[in-house]
Amino acid sequence: AGTRIKTPSNSTSDAVCEDCPEGKHSNGTLTTCEDCSGKGGYADKPKSSVCKTAPAGHKPNADRTGIVKCRSGTFSVGASDDCGSCKEDETSPEGAAGCSTCATCPAGRYKTANCTTTNDTVCEVCVKGKVSMGGYASS
Fold it and tell me: What is the pLDDT of residues 37-50, one digit of tens each?
C-alpha cells in the first residue's frame, strides 16, 4: 500500500513498485498514484495508502501535502477544501471551527473598538463620574 506498480510482473520477473509521493495515495494495486482530491484530502507523508482529511479550523495546502490553519475572520468545520468567511457582526481567530457573534459591552463598560471579522469588540471600564448602560453605548 502507498505504492504504484511501475512495471507489472511477467513470467520472468516480479512486479516493480514505486512509492507514491506526498499529496498522492495508492492501495498498491494501481499503476498510478491518485491525487488526494476528496473534500479536505491530503497526504503529508510519502507512501500513503489513503488520504487524511483536514480537521476543523484547517484546509489542505495547494499541493495537498499538508494542512494550513484558516486565517482570522474565516473558519472550517473540517473535511473542506476552503475556509468560509465570517458574516458581518461575527468574528473568529486563526484556526477557528466557526464564527462567534461580536460581543457587546456590559453595563459599566464602553466600546473603544468595533468588532471586525478578525477582532472582537473592545470594551473599557468607564472612568469615575461616567456611566454606560452597556450594549453599543460609546461613552
Answer: 999 999 999 999 99
